[in-house]
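Progress report, Aim 2. The chain analyzed during this reporting quarter is listed below.
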Amino acid sequence: MSTEKTSPRIARTASQVLRTPGASPTAKSLAGSVLSQTRSPKETSAPLATMAAKVLDDGRSSKSTQSLAGSVLTQKKSTGAPRR
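Predicted structure tokens for the chain:
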């Protein structure tokens, strides 16, 4: 289980994104995930983590969307390195 919690700054960013009519569906999905994990032990799902990783790989995403993506990935359960 991830012990990371959403910071107040990221929660505010997520709230602003959700209230922005022109925000992309991707940004709104990330924002919803961030807010759902604010005071909860919930972890990021694999599909949402994949979406967040693509946002970080794509240089065209806004700073706020990239911040949300980073927060979402931080709250993904670590699979750790494979053991030998």
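Helices lie at 8-19, 25-36, 46-57, 63-74. Residues 8-74 form one domain. These observations will guide the mutagenesis work planned for the next reporting period.
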